[in-house]
Amino acid sequence: MGRVLSLEDMCATREVLRREGKRLVFTNGVFDILHRGHCEYLADARALGDALIVGLNSDASVTRLKGPRKPIVPQDDRAAVLAALGCVDYVVYFDEDTPRELIAAVLPDILVKGGDYEVADIVGRAEVEAAGGKVLTIPLTPGRSSTNIIATIIERYCQHDT
Question: What is the pTM of this model?
Answer without folding.
Answer: 0.91
